[in-house]
Amino acid sequence: MTDIHPAPDHAVPPACPAHDKAVALAGLEYQQTPSELYRGLRAEHGAVAPVLLDGSIPAWLVLGYAEVSYVTSHDELFARDSRRWNQWDAIPPDWPLLPYVGYQPSVLFTEGEEHRRRAGVISQALAGVDQFELARDCRQLADHLIASFAGSGRAELMRDYAHALPMRAAVRMCGMPHGGDETRQLVEDLRVSLDAAEGDDPVAAYARVGERIHRLVRHKRERPGPDVTSRMLTHPAGLTDEEIVQDLISVIAAAQQPTANWIGNTLRLLLTDERFALNVSGGRLSVGEALNEVLWLDTPTQNFIGRWAVNDTQLGGRQIRAGDCLVLGLAAANTDPQLWPEAHVGAENSAHLSFSNGEHRCPYPAPLLADVMARTAVETLLERLPDLVLAVEPDELTWRPSIWMRGLTALPALFTPVVP
């Protein structure tokens, strides 16, 4: 696996006056009520706020819908190659965000024609996934998972269901063996690398993810099948094994963690919001509305790091210097009061930025496949367990301590036991 590494040839620029008032992207406010923090940042700084990442590393948080759209639509000004960063000399080798920003030969960091080539391979490989077959597979996976706890009358839905279903669906799409320690460890290491808890080692976890995907690619070179990995290997673009490993990591990570939290956040909404109470049991229209509302108000990917300024420029009234890091505030942008002046988010439309925007947005048809997984998971659970209720009061639910992902630590539920 290619090491995640900084680019040491950049010098750290003089201290930026704007960052004297920077806010650290950490703390309890982010964990439970990030919307309040975004509101405060907007009031003090406007659409682009100076912030501090882990270790007091300066960056810019882009909060405005128009500003996020502008950044993601202008790759010539705000690019993805992190080797441009002007802070690399200040980054230690065990920095917890290194899996996000350390340059790798991945589609995530490519630009221009190379990015279009790599993203095209992913899009064509994903386009080979039959959405009706995926929905059928997800229903089977859902039935199997539900059967494992249906007889007890209680379940912890994040652990037992929301995380398990997209994980199994994603690895099945990519041709990994169903179940087994290898698959379980892959998913755990992906969680650690993307959303590390205290005591986790995200850099080591990411290295283990690469090793496991390397083994999958070698296996599919020898024994190709009707799966995403094999289609990437046989694509005319002729990607190397290393390129495919890196891009598969991106595909699996995007399919698993965000989709799991999309499922969990939607179930929370359906089980706590009285607007859905009358129609929740198997109500397809209600489920669809809830899924879309979550993407506006509780999007699984809250913030995304990042873009790097190609030259000195201005954004949202701020002077951005060449090499500065910009964090895309997707959740803040989705609730921008400039977009919703009446403070009512119109969840009936799909113009949210939850899948980002521009050339580096989540490649088609990945959002459609994620929707199939999430919709099938939620609908099947409610159909099988129609009297599902929370086992705790809504205000007892807690969010995972992450500024990047929005997901519950647990979702305990009760229902009438179902005897097979």
UniProtKB/TrEMBL annotation:
CDD domains: CYP_unk
Family of the protein in this entry: Belongs to the cytochrome P450 family.
Protein name: Cytochrome P450
Species of the source: Streptomyces plicatus
